[in-house]
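Students often ask what a holo structure prediction actually looks like on paper. The answer is less mysterious than it sounds. You provide the chain, you provide the ligand, and the output is a string of discrete structure tokens encoding the 3D arrangement of the protein together with adenosine monophosphate.
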Amino acid sequence: MISSSEMQEKRDLVTVETVDEMQSIVRAAKQQGHTVGCVPTMGYLHDGHASLIRRAAENNDLVVVSIFVNPTQFGPNEDFERYPRDLERDLNIVNQAGGTHVFVPSVKEMYPNGARSTIHIDGITEVLEGAARPTHFDGVATVVSRLFEAMEPTVAYFGQKDYQQTLVIRRMVESSPLASVHVVAIEVLPTMREEDGLARSSRNVYLSDTDRRDASIIYAALRAGADLLARGEHSLPRVEAAMHSRLCELPRLTVEYAVAVDAATLRPPAAVVPGMTIALLIAARLGSTRLIDNVLVPIDL
Ligand code: AMP
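The corresponding structure tokens follow.
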């Protein structure tokens, strides 16, 4: 049963389909001194997304959640067509988490001239996800820049789940005139997990029951690496070996990478020194499902 207050709230959720309309709503709100928090997503929302929306709602007057399955960040043989979509369900989640607006542009609205010009961020996109998915981060940077143009956020919220993506977006904002025109602050929030540690992801619906159960090994391997670092192990090859040996317990899992790197550069540091943060990152396939996860380990002073 939906209570009358829930119905009232649901009625208040505004759906916006065009960049022009989005801009005029946000600009009018800002003129009244309101702040705008935005949460870019590809929909099929789960509690990870909801945590970002809740934080945005705590700190902002307007909370705009974009739902756009961005074709340019998928490679030719990836899952763009079958990516899960359920707008009705998403609207309820946005509403309950405190969103005020949902921005649901069409592909034509986002790319009126096709995807002819793209944004490329150097330095951080050549490795890991960028190596496995060569056009992925150009697609991400391009769409996020376009979304920022439409939503003109005061603060934009992202999940640590996609750690490399957060570095790309931070760099994009730092190096873009957008950042000086609109104040775009980036806030990154922790990864929300299932009880067994599996990072919540829209793609988890692809997993069979067996794969779903076995997928928790990824977080177990990250924990094994993090525990070793916390016990004072400073040899990153040994930390990586510990993660690999945990992952090897599941022969059906195809490991793409399981690395321990400097969290600032995503490359092996010259030395592990107090004050730095090590990022442990894993990408692996179970059946046809590709999963990524990471943990950050600060090295004690
Ligand atoms: P997506 O819809 O997968 O593009 O994700 C939209 C945003 O939600 C991104 O900033 C993700 O990093 C974030 N996100 C996805 N999964 C999680 C999670 N398990 N915990 C926290 N944030 C997440």
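The chain has a mean pLDDT of 94.
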